[in-house]
Amino acid sequence: MANRTDSSQRRGESLSRDRIIEASIEILDTGGEGGLTFRALSEKLATGPGAIYWHVANKNDLLVAACDVIVARTMQACMAKASPEDTIRAIALGMFDAMNAHPWVGSALVQASGQLPGVRIVEGLGQSLRALGVPDAAQWPTVSALLNYILGVGGQNAANTQFAIARGLERSSFLHATSTTWSQLDADAYPFTRSMAAQLPAHDDRADFMAGIEIFLSGVKSSGARSH
Amino acid sequence: MANRTDSSQRRGESLSRDRIIEASIEILDTGGEGGLTFRALSEKLATGPGAIYWHVANKNDLLVAACDVIVARTMQACMAKASPEDTIRAIALGMFDAMNAHPWVGSALVQASGQLPGVRIVEGLGQSLRALGVPDAAQWPTVSALLNYILGVGGQNAANTQFAIARGLERSSFLHATSTTWSQLDADAYPFTRSMAAQLPAHDDRADFMAGIEIFLSGVKSSGARSH
DNA sequence: ACCTGAACACCGTTCAAGT
DNA sequence: ACCTGAACACCGTTCAAGT
After folding, report:
1. Which of A18, A122, A190, B130 has the fewest CB atoms lying closer than 10 Å?
2. A66 min Cα distance to partner chain B (Å)
3. Which residues touch strand C (CB under 7 A)?
4. Would the CA dihedral through A29, A56, B185, B106 be positive or negative?
């Protein structure tokens, strides 16, 4: 049954959901969202497209499953830090780094919000906020806001990366191009954006992201939550 | 409010970029993101697909342009409220309502972050935060965080709507189904999510969204910004 | 200049047929 | 049970040809 063919993948193991998901992640990491195709996937796995459908419902199912592998791995590394606040920071930072390393995760997560990958994040954040002393009624809105912020950053990061890839640009030249566009905006209508153009290429996405988390945590603490 | 031109296909009028965008918005509102097709569009406009390409670079260009119409209209109605804080609230609420009425705007905005529609929002938020007294160095991270939060909500809202539409569900039965799934999660691994399941169907997205904005504003004020 | 519409190179998904 | 691969119904985009 298991005939040994030396594929780049593994030895001639039989097809399985896990193997399909694993191959999908490799394709997504290499070629971005557009690269994941049932044809590309079946070629990598040395089968036909139909075979994949025996293990996977459809493309969305596949994407969510691939996303969940990354999220589960990330969350596992982030739980139970020194303080609940630090756990929230670790989750946020972990997800940021994961979505940076795998830009497709950002858009997949947005699409699969209520499903398992999103639930993992909700759970981690929720437990921490509860430990922080956020009152019952405020827990859901607070978790929801934090998750939405993280997803927003991830989605935009994914879009920027894809945009840059599609044009064969490096991240730095993409930022430089955007900066130039902004600096040429109408001075009366866009004073703020114009004044931000100069610092755009040098800015640190990760630091900005964490600054947002800190604003948020500071807001949580000052808006009613008593942390003992 | 404004229903100036209701006629979808005015005979005899020559094709133009504006007419194409107008028709695209109608299709997107009716059939969602999947409904916008060069074939559907050319049928509505009584031409061939090739004609559209004379006025529009590609599908992404079309989507961004349609998105920008909605965003520009929304921002125009939100500027210059009583206080900078109220302006921020108005922008957030306006964008929430716009993305709720046109779910495709959420995902389009995420894809077009650095482009014109995103810049309009950045400008509105930035001017307000500046007026609020947020120090220079903190302005960009703060605007960025606010925008990301809004985009995250919009993107997720779009995904949920599309998900529900694809399965022919109403919003309420979609929430009910998600609630049931959550309540059946493992009690040890997902205590928080399980305890949220019951209140999920009754929750108010708009109120939750605004609660997030308030947390954020409160964080901005308590984390260094002196608003005289 | 603007428009036509057939054609191209894809795509996700299905399904009779094989083992 | 699992896999094959041709076929179907689409897509975005192009382009020679028309006006």
Report:
1. A18
2. 18
3. A 36-40, 48-50, 53, 58-60; B 14-15, 46-51, 53-55
4. positive
- Parts of chain A belonging to CATH 1.10.357.10: 71-223
Number of Cβ within a 10 Å radius of residue A130? 18
Contact B151, B122 (CB under 8 A): no
- pLDDT tens for each residue of B199-223: 999 999 999 999 999 999 999 998 7
Per the rule left: phi > 0, alpha: psi between -120 and 50, beta: everything else, A37 is beta
The DSSP call for residue B79 is: S
Bases in strand D with any atom closer than 7 Å to a protein CB: 2-7, 10-16
Where would I find the H helices in chain B? 17-31, 38-44, 49-55, 59-76, 84-101, 103-111, 116-132, 136-166, 171-183, 191-197, 205-222
Compare CB distances from B140 to A123, A156, A196 and report the shortest one's residue. Answer: A196
Answer whether any strand D atom is within 7 A of the Cβ of A59: no
Distance CA A206, CA A216 (A): 15
Q: What are residue A200's phi and psi, to 5 degrees?
A: -60, -50
For chain A, 228 residues long, give each residue's pLDDT as a single digit of tens.
333 233 334 435 789 999 999 999 999 999 999 999 999 999 999 999 999 999 999 999 999 999 999 999 999 998 777 899 999 999 999 999 999 999 999 999 998 878 999 999 999 999 999 999 999 999 999 999 999 999 999 999 999 888 887 777 788 888 999 999 999 999 999 999 999 999 999 999 999 999 999 999 999 998 755 443
Residue B87, helix vs strand vs coil: helix
Location of each CATH 1.10.10 domain in chain A: 1-56
Joined together, the tokens standing for residue B79 give 């500027």
Quote the CA–CA distance of B64 and B114 in Å, as a whole number: 11
What superfamily would CATH give domain B71-223?
Answer: Tetracycline Repressor, domain 2 (1.10.357.10)
Distance in angstroms (rounded) separating the CA atoms of residues B67 and B65: 5
Is A1-56 a CATH 1.10.10 domain? yes
- C-alpha angle B120-B53-B72 in degrees, rounded to nearest 5: 15
pTM, two decimals, is 0.91
